[in-house]
Amino acid sequence: MSDKLGDMRRTHQCGELSAGDIGKSVVLMGWVQRRRDHGGVIFIDLRDRQGITQVVFNPEVNPALHDKAHGLRNEYVIGVRGHVDARPEGMINPNLTTGEIEVTAGELQIFNAAETPPFMIEDRIEVSENIRLKHRHIDLRRPSIQRNIITRHRASATVRNYLNGLGFLDLETPILTRSTPEGARDYLVPSRVNPGQFYALPQSPQLFKQLFMIAGFDRYYQIVRCFRDEDLRADRQPEFTQIDMEMSFVGEEDIMAVSEGMIRLLFKEILDRDLELPFQRLTYAEAVSRYGLDKPDIRFGLELTDLTDIVAGSGFKLFASAAAGGGVVKAINVKGGGDFTRKELDDLADFVTVYRAKGLAWIKVKPDGWQSPIAKFFTDAEKQALIERLDMAPGDLILFGADDARIVNDSLGNLRNHLGRRLGLIDDATYAFTWVTDFPMFEYDETEKRYQALHHPFTAPLEDDCDKLESDPLSVRSRAYDLVLNGFEIGGGSIRIHQIDLQQRIFKALGMASAEYEEKFGFLLSALASGAPPHGGIAFGFDRLVMLLCGEQSIRDVIAFPKTQRAACLLTGAPSEPAKAQLDELAIKVRKIQMEG
Amino acid sequence: MSDKLGDMRRTHQCGELSAGDIGKSVVLMGWVQRRRDHGGVIFIDLRDRQGITQVVFNPEVNPALHDKAHGLRNEYVIGVRGHVDARPEGMINPNLTTGEIEVTAGELQIFNAAETPPFMIEDRIEVSENIRLKHRHIDLRRPSIQRNIITRHRASATVRNYLNGLGFLDLETPILTRSTPEGARDYLVPSRVNPGQFYALPQSPQLFKQLFMIAGFDRYYQIVRCFRDEDLRADRQPEFTQIDMEMSFVGEEDIMAVSEGMIRLLFKEILDRDLELPFQRLTYAEAVSRYGLDKPDIRFGLELTDLTDIVAGSGFKLFASAAAGGGVVKAINVKGGGDFTRKELDDLADFVTVYRAKGLAWIKVKPDGWQSPIAKFFTDAEKQALIERLDMAPGDLILFGADDARIVNDSLGNLRNHLGRRLGLIDDATYAFTWVTDFPMFEYDETEKRYQALHHPFTAPLEDDCDKLESDPLSVRSRAYDLVLNGFEIGGGSIRIHQIDLQQRIFKALGMASAEYEEKFGFLLSALASGAPPHGGIAFGFDRLVMLLCGEQSIRDVIAFPKTQRAACLLTGAPSEPAKAQLDELAIKVRKIQMEG
């Protein structure tokens, strides 16, 4: 046979032989990780997915075979039939499961030669990510990446077993579908059979999973690919995977309980960590008030304190005018930050300008009073009130934000995370989960001069707030919930609207005329009128979840074939220019364009 | 809460209560399948995914609740708190698991009203498929379709458990990828970030799974969506799902054994059928010789018999010239077909013209000799030879084909299937599997005047035939194998090429210059040079497999949201016209075209 396997069939993986196997005849197959010549004897570290076994070619035992082994180089693919022996005293490697044994070769098949790899197949390498992605088939041989990809498999298998056990059905939804607004740009696919018409790749299976509930499937899940044509940031991919689920006849508690059970099982199976349930909960209002952000990292303090009432009447114009203009004044007390240098304080001020803050007022609390450019503006009473509310003590550094609430929260919230990392307040070994609930239903889009759904337009409002849908939409809270881990949003969902009249009111609140929503969502409205049960669901970002489980910094390290920030696959060269005949068949033309960058 | 669930939480599904639950207080939720008013009492058949429970509203027990229940109509969504009672004597329904009990309602929540459905929620309905697809969320409530979709879930869970248990890794591959030739048209996706460039949706993850093997993952599988922009026939969809797998360090036997175990488990789990292993095997040559087709239905006889040698010198010009021109003469003996009418024979002749046969010669074997327009052309010796080889007996009908081998095999092979169905020779309860192996590597494309790969260009040739790659490509056999069930190809795969030099020879045999294959497949060649193990795999058409497991005739009945033969989703209205701004962002234009049909 051309593959040279002949009658050679693997008996073991390279990671499984141990002292108990001594005396056995075995066949191993794998890659040459390393060849050493030692005292005339050739030692091969033979590698496969499971581990490494040392193979010995001894010229005194078999001179011809020893000669053949001389030709072996790193990454050659071989098969070895041999005998499991105990390693000599002093050669035992206690760090390796196979460290007590070696295989004395009796037969060698060289299945394939290998060119010298462009980088070493090991974890700590100094090579650009682009080189790694171009040679991804080699990069994927490195132990850490291989472990990540296998962990990803284990995580998906764990999720499936858990959800299958709870009566969830793994149901498939279309990839060639209709454009629905999820807030990002769609990838479009021209239809050849229907010229001028396009499919959209789904940003999520949202409406299909709702249709499954309406059709009576009761509990749905899918580990499913989704697509967003966004400008890529570090932690985004054009295609990503989510754990998507939906349940009928449930409220928030049911979905949170199923989710918490799933996350606990994942952390137990993958990391052998016991998470305490239930997870903490914060309303959106509380999260933003205390942490500035709706995805708070709750592993450390440095919480934000609102001081607007104290400083509203103060002599410091910036604070007084922020308060008078409907804004807020808030501060963080950085315990022990009193020795920050002027340079360091300037850097922090630069940091917050990214978040549109105009400056960063500060007070250093010294044993003999305040050191601060703004101290002079406050009365003794105001000073006393600030000291008490901020629990000031000598050595503290107080950092202020004063502006619109959104700018203050955003800038101080991000400053808080920055300081947390910088001051070493974050325990990397801690996994701190919190649910964030009661999000606003809408936000106002200044550019388009209309309200937009903060989650999506199928999210149910809180019953108590429904009467304000038309009169005061910004005050309406939704039945949406996010699950946040260490400052990352890892999942989000909501109870959905199941009544046609409420769904129509939401579309109207979003500025759609009935002709528009009938055209876009007529099929949903018709389904809601056909007997729709109360239902809700959640979706978890699987790439990010696996990234956190693997302790990685980038989702590209847990995706086998990721794309770059230019949305390109460096390995295969996608995207690429199609043949003109292909475009002709699709009845489309590429416009003359100025190529960018 | 707006969903009216309040503190009502389901305690049971509608299919699970039985006599053992009598006396319990329960909460059920579901759809009104039917309402009957009987002697002043209202009976509701309450339906969910699991079954039906009878709910009773008795005016004497609770007049207000009885009044409320009067408003219920079919497909209303309700919740009921009640008491499990034994049904009165004579009301017991032994066909229902819940047939011994009923639930006497104590509380009723109406979660949603429902319009009268466009068709009945039951199995035998007279309604066009287009109406069903337009209201698919309602169609999916019908018991047979719901069962199919749930069977699909069970089938995928069974496959995953089986493959996970064998050390296969469920690994994801990109959907936005590079066009590779699999013989069908690609769906293209314009890239906004890289104007003028396009991704292709994968026709299969073929090269990525080979890269996984080269990267050392050893055993890969994925239940994965694939895409082909073909003109749709009855049994095709633009997107379809396959069970895709690949293994390293294996030969054909290993892949067949894993596949057979998987199929056996599926049939046991889903149908409680015990399949006998191993499956029968036929070479391509033998399949075509005996059955005319490379996906033979082996549940019945009517095999083809080659008569070329006997009739080559006969006086019947059509046979003699077919033989002289390198063609063949073959026949089917239809036992008991001797009483076919002239009209029936004409219909059979029409049938084979679809397969380019020019006619259908025939002989009816009577007790007193042959009745046939062609009998007179044969000598007694030729007649005797035909009688013996075809095992002729009175009452038989012999049907002949004479032409190029391809036309004869194709027309008689399809005629054989047609007759098998028509004569009731096929036992629908039988599942007959056969492997077909040793396919030709190439076929000659008359239009493009070049060789094409019969499977794909990464399929390994048989070692014995490698020396004919350049000199006689059409005689080279491949290490490809298909699994055929009852005449359907349900899976196919091959041992792949793992040596760079052999891969280059194949590309050349396919007429590619080295610049062309380097441009298209440079990354594969580079991977083959980096230490590629012997490997092979297989892919199963999951939609068709589930269709056969469900006993359905169309894959659309096992896909939740299928597309029509015009590649449209009638429910959501995909594909649709995009906004001009979307196309502008993608730098493409729709050409003015004459809309067809």
Automatic annotation (TrEMBL), chains A, B:
The record marks 38, 90 as: Important for tRNA non-discrimination. This is Aspartate--tRNA(Asp/Asn) ligase. Residues 206-209 are annotated as: Aspartate. The gene is aspS. It catalyses: tRNA(Asx) + L-aspartate + ATP = L-aspartyl-tRNA(Asx) + AMP + diphosphate. It is an enzyme of class 6 (ligase). ATP binds at residues 228-230, 237, 489, 541-544. It is found in: Cytoplasm. InterPro entries: Aa-tRNA-synt_II, aa-tRNA-synth_II, aa-tRNA-synth_II/BPL/LPL, Asp-tRNA-ligase_1, Asp-tRNA-ligase_1_N, Asp/Asn-tRNA-synth_IIb, AspRS_core, GAD-like_sf. One of its GO terms (molecular function) is aspartate-tRNA ligase activity. Aspartyl-tRNA synthetase with relaxed tRNA specificity since it is able to aspartylate not only its cognate tRNA(Asp) but also tRNA(Asn). Reaction proceeds in two steps: L-aspartate is first activated by ATP to form Asp-AMP and then transferred to the acceptor end of tRNA(Asp/Asn). Keywords: Aminoacyl-tRNA synthetase, ATP-binding, Cytoplasm, Ligase, Nucleotide-binding, Protein biosynthesis. Residues 157-562 form the Aminoacyl-transfer RNA synthetases class-II family profile domain. Its EC number is 6.1.1.23. The lineage of its organism: Bacteria, Pseudomonadati, Thermodesulfobacteriota, Desulfobacteria, Desulfobacterales. It comes from the Bacteria. Its main location: cytoplasm. It comes from Desulfococcus multivorans DSM 2059. Belongs to the class-II aminoacyl-tRNA synthetase family. Type 1 subfamily.
